[in-house]
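Milestone M4 deliverable, item 7.
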Amino acid sequence: MPQQKIGQAGLWMAGWLSATLAMTIAGRELAHSVSVFEMMMFRSLIATLILTPIIFLNGGLTGRLSQLRLHAARNVLHYAGQYAWFSALLLIPLVEVIAIEFTMPLWIAILASAFLAERMYGAKIAALVIGFGGVLMIAKPGMTFNPGHVVALTSALLFACTVTMTKYITRRDTALTVIFLMFSMQIVIGAIPAYLTWVWPPVESYKWIAIVALTGTGSHYCLSRAISLADATLVMPMDFLRLPLTALAGYLIYAEGIDGWSILGALLILAANTINLMKARTT
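Output delivered:
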């Protein structure tokens, strides 16, 4: 077993945290001046331009198109998930979007059990119950209703579908292939909706376009590098820092508060993920 480089992995995870936080803020700012479809088109175009020379320096497209139908299906779902995620940023506080996003591993556990024949044991079931209890505390059904919570939860479910498909796809394709085909295919998927909602962004929005595109690409690379240097069960708990960091950014930039129910719900979701991670260490 190759030696783990935990210190280097930690630095790459710091890059992931910085990039995703910057993309969250830039996505909200940009969505005030252009449609979400247009924002995603800019992101895909710039990312494809960045990744194309890297692909050709690593052997070009030869052997990268053998699972094209699977990639296409994955990217339709991912595109819908991205649309829901960016839309949720405008509907509910940032920290609530991220807290609900953390239900993704719980959805993955259900999907992996259904489609990848992974076993659902007692700890996973307990994590699911605790995690979804946390979602109910954040959404507070019957007390308040905000469609943003439904949109954010839909995003988490769609992302879970794409991660489950990625587990299967990466048995034959590399992470670089997955990321390149994701952005290049989403140019095609998003062409018509972007055209129908297109407006030329004001000059001051171009910095947010650049940030969304660069951080959206860089975050994927940082995460893949971190996981390549150390076990995912050691690396992924660092992602939990995204929740307090996003809460702090929401408070400082947008004066967003968070109530006690939402704090308790977020803690329950993190506890559910911790149960999954601790169980993964011991299996």
